[in-house]
Amino acid sequence: MPRYDSIQSRLETVRPPRVRLTYDVQVGDAIEHKELPFVVGVLGDFSGADGGTAAERPRLKDRRFVPVDVDNFDEVLRGIAPSLRLRVADRLSAQVGGPGGELGVELRFERLEDFRPESVVRQVEPLRRLLEARTRLADLRNKMAGNERLEELLVHALREPATLVAIGHDAPAASE
């Protein structure tokens, strides 16, 4: 097992610490300034898993500290594998005349970026489909900007009922 220097000594070479705890010690007639290291320890089961009964989990004294910093945060998060499983009201189906009800959602987090809203949306299937449709519409809008020929074709397609019916028949095949 490799020997690690304390995090405080490594940080001093990289950047000064944000929290500095000092105290003054009187040694003879002189006063010395001593600095205490600032270390935070957090205990807890963060995986989101049930982990069984308290007897099945490792005892507190058998657990080890895991040093976490900006360089290994994603690795530590991947090792913990936090997840969230819940049921939410299905407002998307209800808005389009569907049955509504509840939607089962399971979110997994392996990197810090997985907590961003767009990453969460990609993990929920109905929301992912809406995000893809939004992206396609934004792409179409960007293509139409300054493209008069494409705009004319779209206006023509929207005015012709036969063209709309043909597009409607082709749409399910295109989305598969």
Automatic annotation (TrEMBL):
<dbReference type="InterPro" id="IPR008312">
    <property type="entry name" value="T6SS_TssB1"/>
</dbReference>
<dbReference type="Pfam" id="PF05591">
    <property type="entry name" value="T6SS_VipA"/>
</dbReference>
<protein>
    <submittedName>
        <fullName>Type VI secretion system protein ImpB</fullName>
    </submittedName>
</protein>
